[in-house]
Design goal:
Layout (H helix, E strand, L loop, with lengths): L1 H21 L6 E6 L2 E7 L2 H4 L6 H13 L8 E6 L3 H10 L3 E6 L24 E4 L3 H21 L6
Parallel strand pairs: 3-4, 4-5
Antiparallel strand pairs: 1-2, 1-3
Helix pairs in contact: 1-5, 3-4
Length: about 160
């Protein structure tokens, strides 16, 4: 049952990632779930918002806090298409989410086990359960396609068509 639910919400996060792509942002999407209901969602917006913290995960956590009227998001699950960076992983620890589910691993900046493991670090005062690789090939393909398009645009000197 959990696997089907995880795939359902990851598909939703992939739809949010498409919104980031359409805006010219790196296509990462995130959805925050509590009791099988959406309490927050987001997609990457640092370029458009001129905000280095406007990652998909941060946007979803901010909405979740407002929806719950509490910065503690106990028992919530965050679904995100790409393994979180250190900043986002730190926000997850501070928000006390119960679980992270991500699609594609990020060997360069991933802070949920690939480069670092902030979420399960023994020195942290909160540990987050992690499930990885959910629709991982689809999530990775979306990112690969986006960066391939960007490289092609750079080679041909075309402006992005978002």
């Amino acid at each position: 049952m959990t696997d089907q639910r995880d795939q359902h919400w990851m598909r939703y996060a992939l739809q949010l990632a498409q919104r980031a792509w359409q805006a010219g942002e790196v296509p990462v999407g995130a959805v925050l779930i509590h009791d099988n209901n959406i309490i927050g969602e987001g997609w990457n917006r640092p370029i458009g918002e001129h905000d280095p913290t406007a990652h998909a995960e941060i946007m979803a956590l901010r909405q979740g806090g407002k929806a719950r009227q509490n910065y503690r998001l106990l028992n919530a699950t965050l679904y995100v298409t790409l393994e979180p960076c250190t900043m986002c992983a730190g926000a997850m620890v501070h928000s006390r989410i119960g679980r992270l589910v991500y699609g594609a691993s990020d060997q360069k900046t991933g802070a949920a086990g690939s480069l670092l493991d902030v979420l399960r670090h023994p020195g942290m005062n909160h540990q987050v359960e992690i499930s990885s690789g959910i629709l991982g090939m689809e999530c990775a393909a979306l990112l690969s396609d986006f960066f391939r398009m960007r490289r092609d645009q750079k080679k041909t000197g075309r402006s992005p068509s978002f």
